[in-house]
Amino acid sequence: MQPAFSDIIDIGQQCYERFIDGSNAPEIAELDIELAGCSNLSGNYTVGRVSPPNHTLFYSLSGQGHFRTPFGSFTISSGQLIALPAYQSFEVTIASEAWDIIWLNLSDTPQWDALPKHRPEIVENVNLSGVHHAMELLYLEADAENREAAIHIIGRHLHQLINRDVTHSTDRHATRLTSLFAAVDNQLQYQWDVSQLSKKAHYSAPHLHRLCLKYYQRSPMQQVIHLRMQRARNLLLNTQWPISYIAHYVGYANVFTFSKRFKKSVGKPPREFREAEVKEKT
User: In sequence order, what are the residues at sequence separation of 6 or more whose Cβ sits closer than 8 angstroms to the Cβ of residue 159?
Assistant: First the structure.
């Protein structure tokens, strides 16, 4: 039998939180948000609530958090969100050395009727970086017009996430692959290999290969190369960066290897491609 729940706030000196409420962002009332925050946590952190009247969302940016609920215990990691229903007790603690999160307390109103009402729900492979950045802006921004723009971003992302089809007809594999290659696109300079891609996507290497062929008509590494060539093409067109710099930026230490790959993908070497595009514009 698990221990009884109680209202607890044990937040140590190594935890840093930026609270968003009606005093610094009155616009949150439009979304029926009672309180929200961006938190960088380490050391002591335990928060417990007994029958809170609002829904609570926790999204893990990095690290892990552990939740105790009447329906059992759950751990969320980077890229996962947990939705805790209103009027259900819970307790949350850090489950890693450090844990970076965003969290929101949403009023139990018709706007959020699609949230789970009976038991906690974990959503995997979700990208709420847009919500995170908008929340940081909301916390810092003094201008009401800019705060309104941030609220619009937060609301759009949350409604897209929460009002998704409850049968999850959206292909979960497609969602997971989108999340994987969005992460790759953010680190094209990193020396990705199939093992690292498989581990990040939580698939075996053969299964990831089959899925990439199905959705992209490319192998996992071919998809990485495709993203690198897209970025290289954009940089050649929109910057005056040296080709050697662009090569390193998209993950090629050897300029010759980069040029050969670019020609195979685009049909022209990088220098010739750039010169042709400049000539066409003039």
Answer: none
CA distance 132 to 260: 39
Handedness of CA 171, 175, 180, 181 (dihedral sign): positive
* Predicted pLDDT at 282: 63
Angstrom distance (rounded) from CA 127 to CA 129: 6
| DSSP reduced 3-state for 130 | helix
Burial 204-237 (b: 16+ CB within 10 A, else e): eeeebbebbeeeeeeebeebbbebbbebbbebbe
Count other Cβ atoms within 10 Å, centred on residue 265. 15
C-alpha–C-alpha distance, residues 209 and 212, integer Å: 5
Domains, the chain:
8-162 (2.60.120.10), 172-281 (1.10.10.60)
Q: What are the 10-residue block averages of pLDDT along the chain, 282 residues in total?
A: 84 94 94 96 95 96 95 92 95 96 96 90 87 95 94 92 55 81 91 94 92 94 96 93 94 95 94 85 66
276: tokens are 């042709």
DSSP 16-29: EEEEE-TTT-GGGG
Measured in degrees and rounded to the nearest 5, phi and psi for residue 214 equal -70, -45
pTM confidence score: 0.67
Site of tokens 């961006």: 38
Residues 6+ apart with CB under 8 A from 45: 10, 11, 12, 15, 92, 93, 94, 99
Edge-first strand order for the sheet with 45-49 is 8-11, 45-49, 90-94, 65-69, 72-76
